[in-house]
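Open question from group meeting: does this chain pack into something compact, or does most of it stay loose? Before anyone orders reagents, we agreed to write out a predicted structure and look at it together. Recording both the input and the output here so the notebook holds the full record.
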Amino acid sequence: MQGAGAVSQSVPVIVYLKSRTREAVIVELVDELYKKKSGLFGKNLTAEAVAGSVLSRELANSTGIGEGLAFPHARIEGWKEIAMAVGISHEGVDFFTADGHPTKLIFLMISSTEEAYVILQAMSAVLRALKETRYLSRIVREDIQTEDIIKILSRVEINPKEKILVSHIMSPVVRSVMQETSVEDLAHIMHTEHLDVLPVIDGEGKFCGEVSCLDVFRFGMPDFFSQLNTISFVKYIDPFDKLFRLKKGLKAKDLYHPEAKSLNKQNTLMEVIFEMTVKGKSKLFVVDDSGVLIGVIDRFTIIDKILFF
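Structure tokens returned:
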């Protein structure tokens, strides 16, 4: 690891965990970090205070991301530079992840409040290294050894001056629909999974556009409605009459927006914010160089990973 934002002293603390709960794991990792690198804490910081900051953040919103991984962290005033302690648990610890898998690899990260995004950048770099070394798909079902962690982290470089990119904050796409998906099925997905916008893809997984609940609502509205200032004289018209009459033959391709803006992994945070504020987008989809859908960013992502991180 290299550069001003590299993890302190190049080699992070690696711990074979004795603890079995996430709270105890965090305390154990902070204690080990204090024993090995107490100089990072500053004269007014104790291990108990740092552990308390990490626990407070963790209890507010779990940092377990699934696939056997968790990233408990905190930004602390007076901290010297970013540091990492990696906990290995062969049995696994419950970090309350969505996939329900036990967490076997825990990356504790501490940084200064003056380095607002360095933890996010470090997480992204670690995940990229895990994927490149093909450990990401093996963590849940295989034991991880110290030499594995060293190999993974040898590929991690953190640059605190790097811009925050879409690749740092995007999430996997939970659900998409095909162009030929019926409106009935589309509406059912929106209803059961509480999704207001869905990406539309083709048979190769390429992003074609998006369809929203609003598009379903608007389909049944007469065109002249957009010119009205009041609906007083037409308030008894059934807005879904047209939809119900035609819905048997309706498909996603009849409602979706092919011109919908997509992003790539190199777009910046400022571009995301522009689309969400100026353009009023609630959700943005991410594609790779060939146009295949690979991720999503929504307004909650910004709150969770940027403002609340």
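Observations to bring back to the group:
The two ends are 23 Å apart (CA to CA).
Residues 1-6 have pLDDT under 50 and may be disordered.
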